[in-house]
Design goal:
The chain has 231 residues and is mostly beta strands. The protein is 9% helix and 71% strand. Strands 1-3-4-5-6-7-8-9-10-11 form a ten-stranded antiparallel beta barrel.
Length: 231
């Protein structure tokens, strides 16, 4: 009788463990290092003392972008961004920039998810400060290459508007592109899997309202390297 009880207990524990492993909810935590090459626009005057838009390149800088995401069955949600980061421009001036991304989405197939989100970017200088925010629609996808390797991509389009805290008012079209290679390693320790990524990320804000009929362009691009732990 005792032997049967122990066997039944073992079966119950095994069933419980199997159910835990098959839980529809998963959590992922990671960080991405982005070697940002940033060129933004500023305001100056020409020889006729008229205001003009100028493009100003900054020195390359590596920023860390933390990521937290949740997945329940085919539904996903994520938050990412980076804290205020000081950039030095080639003309000797400096600026502080920070970003925030919030997204929800749905997997329409095992490797393709459609997303809707909200993005906010803030840039602070000595006089001209702006904060843009708005909705973003996107798609993310992965394509297995065999074994633990896969290609990944993320694309997004949005329309940003100046918030009330901006001293410079303009709207901008937003575009995001990221392509890269991922390697996923199964682990039985603190996480189910570890995924390592290497890619190239490009982020563009185009404004046709930066200064009268003059366009302004804000471009950030560069290599990315990341690690994500799934639980």
């Amino acid at each position: 009788m005792k032997k049967r009880s122990l066997t039944a207990l073992a079966l119950c524990l095994a069933a419980g463990a199997a159910q835990a492993q098959e839980s529809p909810l998963s959590v992922s935590v990671g960080v991405k290092a982005w070697n940002t090459q940033w060129t933004t626009f500023g305001y100056d005057t020409n020889n006729a003392n008229q205001p003009v838009i100028t493009q100003v390149p900054a020195r390359d800088k590596v920023v860390l972008v933390p990521l937290l995401s949740l997945r329940y069955r085919d539904f996903i949600a994520s938050i990412s961004g980076y804290r205020p980061t000081n950039y030095e421009f080639l003309d000797g001036s400096s600026n502080t920039r920070k970003e925030l991304d919030l997204n929800v989405g749905y997997y329409v197939s095992p490797g393709v998810a459609l997303t809707l989100g909200y993005k906010k970017v803030e840039q602070k200088a000595s006089t001209d400060n702006y904060e843009l925010a708005g909705p973003v629609a996107g798609v993310s996808a992965t394509a297995p290459l065999g074994g633990a390797y896969a290609l990944y991509g993320a694309f997004g389009l949005g329309r940003m508007k100046s918030t009330g805290s901006s001293t410079v008012k303009f709207n901008a079209d937003y575009r995001l592109t990221e392509l890269g290679l991922a390697y996923t390693l199964a682990t039985e320790r603190f996480a189910k899997t570890l995924t390592f990524t290497a890619g190239y990320r490009t982020q563009v804000f185009n404004s046709k309202e930066a200064l009268g009929d003059q366009d302004g362009r804000d471009l950030t691009q560069g290599l990315t390297f990341g690690i994500v732990a799934a639980f």
